[in-house]
Amino acid sequence: MIFNAAHDGLNSRMRQIVATTCLAGALTLTPGMILGAAKENPDYAAWLKSHAVTATTVDAKSTESAEAVFINGEKLTVEGLPFAKPASEYGRLRSRDKAKKLSGVWHAGRCSAGVTIRFVTDSPEIRVRWDNDRAPLKHMASTGSRGVDLYKWHAGKWEFRGVGKPIETTGTTTEVIRPVYNEGDAESKRTASEYLLFLPTYSGTGNVAVGVNGGSHISPAPDRYGDAKPVVFYGTSITQGGCASRAGTGHVALLRRWLDVPVINFGFSGAGKCELSMADTVAEIPASVYVVETVPNMDPGMINKRAVPFFKRLRKLRPSTPILMVESCNSIRNADRNAAWRTAFEKLKADGVKKLDYLSAAHFFDGRENPTVDGVHPTDLGFFKMAEAYEPVLRGLLSHRPEESQSAAK
């Protein structure tokens, strides 16, 4: 199916999909996974009491409070890592991936884009300590490229609570986040609550620790997703999060919160190019849906050469997982590339490739102003527009198709 997400609404078929998905507020996809539901909060106080962790060898000193206690992030609930043993602490590739020698993939893959830490705490302040190994970018806010972004589960959704601003150079930052409480949030600041912390998108990140005030408690978060497989996004610097103002405001991060599903961000700045070996790597990650959005890094000639073999290889390795091909969000600038992408899609469909869908970007950036930083990378507004276009399509794909039940072919 080809989806055209117009700015003024969805076509009738998509309206039907969204209505079906949101019926009664929830649709069960797999054991332990609810999509679009206002989940009942567990008894966080009881959970915290039984699962609280103690201080580790991470430096417990803080410039803000001598009573602050820091817990190593790895002792909390780390999500968004595609492989069990990454080459770096919060990186997205393994040591053996370096041997593929794909231009730019290794460098970008060591960044922590899409990696999150969930935890429960009753602390009125949350401290985060982390290391950055990359210098600031010229065209992107450091809060987005090298900062952390905090959200709280409240009233059935993830709500913004604060941002961790990095130091101006590489090295260790310790930031105190005093959560921003939205109007109508009557919960006590001492109430045990669940939090979601997004790590930096454009930096290799290490030595992450989460700190709480003296007398407070912190624990890993309860399981939210059971055996649900993630939505896997494979793409470019835009997928990685450039140039969102915070680590949680790129379209992949927005969709992770709006759908409340696990995601893998396999965006590689300047290096999303559909090499055949990348089809093998992507297919190693079990997914509920594969979203492929590599057009901005590929000229028409490259698309003509690589797209069809890439998708046929991915389909061979993952015969039943839905795949969504997405055009470049810069539909005017990349019109020739999008046309080549559409031609590849039509060729694949003609060749009998199943469970392959297509999202047109013709209306992604409709409006009075251009929502990019530099004519290429979206601002937060651009990412918001993209996420709005993706959301109903992904809800439809997640709710109307069974998840992959087979392992990737070896």
Description:
With 410 residues, this protein is α/β, with parallel strands linked by helices. It has two domains: 211 residues, SGNH hydrolase (Rossmann fold, 3-Layer(aba) Sandwich); 177 residues, Sandwich (Jelly Rolls), CATH 2.60.120.260. It contains ten helices and 18 strands. The strands form four sheets. A six-stranded parallel β-sheet has the order 1-18-17-16-14-15, sandwiched between helices. Strands 5, 6, 8, 9, 11 and 13 form a six-stranded antiparallel β-sheet that branches. A four-stranded antiparallel β-sheet has the order 4-12-7-10, with no helix packed on it. Strand 2 and strand 3 form a beta hairpin. Helix 7 runs parallel beside helix 8 and helix 8 runs parallel beside helix 9. The relative contact order is 0.16.
Write the layout of secondary structure elements.
Elements (H helix, E strand, L loop, with lengths): L1 E3 L7 H10 L5 E4 L2 E3 L8 H8 L17 E4 L4 E3 L25 H5 L6 E6 L4 E7 L9 H4 L2 E7 L2 E8 L6 E7 L15 E6 L6 E8 L5 E3 L10 E5 L1 H4 L10 H9 L3 E5 L8 H8 L5 E5 L6 H18 L5 E4 L8 H16 L5 E5 L19 H21 L10
Parallel strand pairs: 1-18, 14-15, 14-16, 16-17, 17-18
Antiparallel strand pairs: 2-3, 4-12, 5-6, 6-11, 6-13, 7-10, 7-12, 8-9, 8-11
Helix pairs in contact: 1-10, 6-10, 7-8, 8-9
Quick recap:
With 410 residues, this protein is an alpha/beta fold. Helices cover 25% and strands 23% of the residues. The chain has two domains: 211 residues, Rossmann fold (3-Layer(aba) Sandwich); 177 residues, Galactose-binding domain-like (Jelly Rolls, Sandwich).
